Amino acid sequence: MSALDAATAPGSTAVVCQVLSGLGGVGKTQLAAHLARRELADGAVDLLVWTTATSRASILSSYASVGNHLSGTDDKDQQRAAERFLAWLATTRRRWLVVLDDLTEPGDLAGLWPPSTPNGRTVVTTRRRDAALLGSGRIPVEVGVFTPAEAERYLRGKLAGRADLAEDAAGLAADLGYLPLALAQAAAYLLDRGLTCGEYRKRFADRRRRLAELVPEPQALPDGHRATVAATWSLSIELADAMTPAGLARPLLELASHLDPNGVPTSVFITLAALRYLDEGRGSSPRRTGFLASLRRSRQVRPQVGAADARDALHCLQRLSLVALTDDASEVRVHALVQRATREQIPPHRRAAAEQTATTALRHSRGADAILRFDMSLEETAFGREAPITIDTAVTCSTCGGELPALFDCRDCGGDGRLRTRRTLTVKFPAGIEDGMRIRLAQQAEAGRYGGTCGDLYIEIHELPHERFTRVGDDLHCTVDGSSIDFATGGILPVVGLDGATFRIRVPPRAHPGIRIRVAGQGVPHLRQTDPGRGDLYITLR
């Protein structure tokens, strides 16, 4: 509610229209309803209009009804009555709040947006993220899932009457991805069946059970929910699939449902394997089976779907809040429950292909990692250095960009999308690094096929033996000739440290050959930045 409250905070610039967007099930309608009830209870509005905005006809009907009520007329022309209502909003001095709930198509509000006035406020809830929703004076408010603490508190609150069922509530909240709708329906399911959170988790982990079997029956849904968590996203998928390029959003989401929900590179979806799957999912080409099909698939076959089509389909899914893209569109995230619901809807004859394609696409989208062994002296590992590293690697072809279908005709890379080259990198080795340690250089190894991201380069340290010092962790050990002093009376002995500086040590009286003297702070600098000191030097006299 904080973003909504900011609109009316004292001293803040007035916000007359807020667009609440997010994945189906995050509680956008509940937030708007809470705001509406509070504004009424506080006497902050004189007129509240709640409109179900699932179609233009529904919006017109609601506007017309209110317009006729305000004017005391019974105009059968809904368009004219709706215009009368909007004109009233624009001129009245009374305070009003219009809530347009569950806007399905942004175009349905063309010519029907409530006016911007000092004493009026509009709140829109929608799964859409279209640019058309971000006109003048409209402030987007992204509604996400609960935090872990909020989710556990919410679940325990729902089970307050049966606290014995709340055992392992935190674990269940995590399993459900902290999604408010899923938590509410799971709580109702627990109460109806007397299950604990731990027992529900076992059922949820059983992949033989469908999501529809883990929520209340449609007639028993809590809090006025209109659909189960599994059915919540069906309409969104249909809408995304109907967008241009038509027919690609659903098969693309099928692939995404088999990948890491925390994020995968966008390049996964423009690999040859992924584009072929999108082709078949849209019905661009008939599915072939048997020996001839294996021969055909072994060759590079031009898919009719291109990389630009796949990227557009990803943006269609984002517009319906089914996936989340990073700002630079380099990574895709999908909520784990959306993934499970999508997997359960994949036709049986395509399930194995979807899983196999996702695995292949992931492998092809990212280049191979590389390990390079690098020799360093003890002085270099102790005090650090910068050094040039030359590697033989594959880079994305600059002619075709590694993208389909251009690479098929590329003479420079021969259809691979990559070229071999030698590259030189400057690597900074920190002070205190040890033998066997590895430095990871992200995305500095082989480029992936079809424009995929590069793998990681690991520099493995090989510390060369030193003629005077032996290293043990951050401590150094050496042997020094003590013949220049009298062991019986002791004395001062000069020693050259690893850094080349000379310092003096005191040899105590009655010393003997083999005695070990500790010199604090003359060892190797600690690698950890939280500990800026150095190890110790242990000198054995001979």
Percent helix, as a range, is 25-40%
Radius of gyration: 33 Å
Could you tell me the number of beta strands?
19
Contiguous runs where pLDDT drops below 50 for at least 5 residues: 285-289, 291-299
Strand proportion? 15-25%
Biggest β-sheet: strands ordered side by side in the sheet:
2-3-4-1-5
How many distinct helices?
A: 16
Oligomerization status of the protein chains: single chain
Structural class of the helix and strand makeup? alpha/beta
* Largest β-sheet summary: 5 strands, parallel
Shape descriptor: elongated
Average pLDDT figure: 89
State the distance separating the first and last CA atoms.
76 Å
How does this structure look, described?
The protein has helices at 2-5, 28-41, 56-71, 78-91, 148-158, 169-175, 180-193, 197-205, 234-242, 249-256, 272-282, 291-298, 307-319, 336-345, 348-365, 378-383, and strands at 17-21, 47-52, 96-103, 120-126, 138-142, 264-265, 324-325, 331-333, 370-376, 385-396, 418-429, 438-441, 457-463, 470-472, 475-480, 491-496, 502-507, 516-519, 537-541. The chain is an alpha/beta fold and 542 residues long. A five-stranded parallel sheet has the order 2-3-4-1-5, with helices on both faces. A four-stranded mixed sheet has the order 14-15-19-18, with no helix packed on it. A hairpin with a 5-residue loop joins strand 16 and strand 17.
